[in-house]
Design brief:
With 228 residues, the protein is mostly helical. It is 69% helix and 4% strand. It contains nine helices and three strands, in the order αβααββαααααα. It has a three-stranded antiparallel β-sheet with strand order 1-3-2. The protein is globular.
């Protein structure tokens, strides 16, 4: 391997590591929508040159998490209510399809893992961060057995772009809203264990649709922006 190839590999590895770090902070709420991402600060934090930082920013822009403005900089992407509703409309139709690809390949161990996650979600109480982490793990685990070239990466992108707004929405839940969400996870597991794929798809579609409709009733969460 030439020195050029070694440098490219090293920069690529560093870029992936930096992208993962920024991605985790965006999804985890540390970088709210509108937060400016200064390349020089990122490079200093990770002890990297500008090259892998630019690679990381490009990757996050492709994923929809970051918006780059020419000759200006990069910011954590914002969504309007209408844009968020569009994303949820897409999820409502596409995630049941991804589940259909995955479900026949979910073995008993995978189903028991989903059942355990559903129970842990029910025990999360009003801990928003625990719910968001477990809920994401639950749904992505239910899709994990799918063998698709386009659908799975698209679904992950849609999940990532709405994460900050979903956090604000879940934080506003009352007891009944939490109870319904918890029950829907158990209903999905029961349908999957019974081999009733149509019921599992129905529950999943309704689960996403209910979130979309309730988001539309909380438009104020789309007004909070950060310019830092």
């Amino acid at each position: 391997m030439s020195q050029i190839d070694i440098t490219r590999t090293r920069d690529g590895d560093a870029g992936a590591r930096i992208a993962e770090g920024i991605r985790s902070r965006i999804i985890g709420g540390a970088y709210p929508p509108g937060t400016r991402i200064r390349q020089e600060d990122v490079a200093a934090e990770y002890g990297a040159s500008r090259v892998p930082v630019r690679e990381a920013i490009r990757q996050l822009e492709y994923e929809g998490l970051v918006t780059v403005v020419a000759n200006s900089g990069a910011w954590v992407s914002r969504l309007t209510l209408a844009e968020c509703e569009e994303v949820y409309q897409m999820r409502e139709r596409l995630e049941p399809l991804l589940l259909r690809y995955s479900a026949p390949q979910l073995d008993p161990a995978a189903l028991e893992h989903l059942a355990d996650l559903a129970q842990r979600i029910s025990e999360a109480g009003d801990d928003t961060e625990a719910f968001l982490q477990l809920d994401r793990e639950f749904h992505l685990a239910s899709y994990a057995a799918a063998r698709t070239s386009q659908l799975d990466p698209l679904i992950r992108k849609l999940w990532n772009t709405t994460a900050p707004y979903r956090r604000a929405y879940v934080s506003s839940w009352d007891r009944d809203s939490r109870r319904i969400a918890y029950e829907e996870h158990h209903l999905m597991v029961a349908a999957l264990k019974d081999g009733d794929l149509e019921e599992a798809e129905r529950v999943l579609g309704g689960h996403i649709r209910r979130t979309r409709r309730q988001l539309a009733r909380t438009p104020h969460i789309f007004d909070h922006t950060h310019d830092v």
